Amino acid sequence: MALALSLGRRGQGSCWPNPAVGCVIVQNGRIVGRGWTQPGGRPHAEPVALAQAGEAARGATAYVTLEPCSHHGKTPPCSQALIDAGVARVVCALQDSDPRVSGQGFDMLRAAGIEVTVGVMADEAAQDLAGFFLKVEQGRPLVTLKLASSFDGRIATATGESKWITGPHARRAVHAMRACHDAVLVGAGTARADDPSLTVRDMGVERQPVRVVVSRHLDLPLMSQLARTAKDVPVWLCHGPGADIERIKAWEGLGAKLIPCALHGVQIDANDLLQQLGASGLTRVFCEGGSALAASLLADDLVDDLIGFTAGLAIGAEGLPSLGAMGLDRLAQAPRFQLAEARPVGPDILHRWTRALR
């Protein structure tokens, strides 16, 4: 199952809206087939592994990280594929919470005389598939918030200079993190100030993450890197209801997808933003700021994983803070996270935090 989980992670960031599943077929103690969900979500992990196993799948054990699907979608159900291949036993980490599947895949397998075991390495699988479950159960993707800052929590000097606070090792690590998410999310201020490409570079990635920018007024430069490359790598712009119709048409003409979102006060409503992204199929979103967007996600308890890169330099109080105002009066109101990892990355420190039990 550990191998199946590692295979499933290969699909993270490239197989949305489907879950990133891994499958291993074992016959007499020997691995005869391996598979994971392919880019775009098809084919699923099980038929990939079964095709590799061929006749060796008959009487074998299949280790799968998520309940095999039982419904006809764009492809036949994976439960039926396992039955047709003559698999004798299926060991699974988790039951699917999608109501089209939830338990029905296991029922199909058992009705065909296949032994089914559920719950092996379930906690690890739940972490890997958290984004898919959040989309199914809450309608929103998993959110990873990344903040790269100085020792005193600043992301730029008073003049706006920010390249580069952290070093090349940290930047390469960020590219790897982008690659395992469906989308990279930034606010309009970051898009204007940095003119970022938000792509994964030097990683051999074939399917780039969606570039998502939150801009209430769509006041983004039409000659930016995002605009020039919108037809090549997806750009989604989340805007308020009052955005200028001519700007909407201009960005659509460049190839961007426009997503209207509700407002909360004067800002895009973070809850509605994520609901819109979930409805568009995203399961894992990597937010890289800026400070106002990061603060709104934290304030609304929408951050699931928090990743910090801290550099060994100090900028001072006149620098731009990594987080905007959150309106907190008491420490008890502050969102808390549990430390999962801390390690050096080149000259910087990476610290990863996960959602604390509320």
Automatic annotation (TrEMBL):
SUPFAM superfamilies (alphabetical): Cytidine deaminase-like, Dihydrofolate reductase-like
Binding site for substrate: S162, R178, L198, R201, E288
Residues at the active site: E46 (proton donor)
Entry keyword set: Hydrolase, Metal-binding, Multifunctional enzyme, NADP, Oxidoreductase, Riboflavin biosynthesis, Zinc
Binding positions for NADP(+) per the UniProt entry: A148, W164, T190, D194, G290, S291, A292, L293, A294, A295, S296
Cofactor: binding details: Binds 1 zinc ion.
A molecular-function term among this protein's GO annotations: NADP binding
EC nos: 3.5.4.26, 1.1.1.193
NCBIfam families for the chain: eubact_ribD (TIGR00326), ribD_Cterm (TIGR00227)
UniProt record similarity statement: In the N-terminal section; belongs to the cytidine and deoxycytidylate deaminase family. In the C-terminal section; belongs to the HTP reductase family.
Record's protein name: Riboflavin biosynthesis protein RibD
Species in which this protein is naturally found: Falsiruegeria litorea R37
